[in-house]
Specification:
- This protein has 128 residues and is mainly alpha-helical.
- The chain contains six helices and two strands; from the N terminus they run H-H-H-E-E-H-H-H.
- The radius of gyration is 16 Å and the shape is globular.
- The mean pLDDT is 89.
- Bound molecules: adenosine-5'-triphosphate.
- Adenosine-5'-triphosphate is lined by residues 62-66, 115, 117-123.
């Protein structure tokens, strides 16, 4: 099933193979347009993969449910030991990159969190 009103079967079938499989970083999509982004987010959301990179930007979809293991101690530990891009997209990867830059550059870091009301901005900021 595809998101209603935005994606027809023909449109999806006309897209490149990697568009139809889903990618972790949408800057790598062969066809890049609004429908391709919606399809990629949808494919990942169906597998409880709520985070997707767009280069150094993180797109997050509100799952409105708890996803097991996503924010537990082992996830914190794993993301604290890897550079951005080495592990699947995650808000912890952004937080860790900020922390690294803080130490490396000895300068303040800023994260811009944007989205419509109810998108999950407050919850995500809390998890960091
Ligand atoms: N990662 C998540 N997992 C499960 N539920 C979530 C998650 N993020 C948000 N939610 C649910 O969505 C609701 C709205 O999220 P949140 O308050 O963070 O939105 P917001 O973007 O800060 O909204 P507003 O701009 O109106 O303050 C939460 O009360 C929670 O029920």
């Amino acid at each position: 099933m595809y998101p209603r009103n935005s994606l027809s079967r023909d449109l999806v079938l006309s897209m490149h193979q990697n568009n139809r499989e889903g990618v972790e970083d949408m800057s790598l999509l062969s066809d890049l347009h609004e429908a391709a982004i919606m399809l990629n987010l949808h494919l990942r959301y169906q597998q409880d993969k709520i985070y997707t990179n767009i280069g150094s930007i993180l797109a997050s979809v509100n799952p409105y449910k708890q996803i097991a293991g996503l924010y537990d101690e082992s996830a914190v530990d794993m993301y604290s030991r890897h550079h951005f891009g080495e592990l699947p997209p995650h808000i912890f990867a952004i937080a860790n990159e900020c922390y690294r830059c803080l130490w490396k550059r000895h300068d303040s870091q800023c994260v811009l969190i944007s989205g419509e009301s109810g998108a999950g901005k407050t919850e995500r900021a809390r998890s960091c």
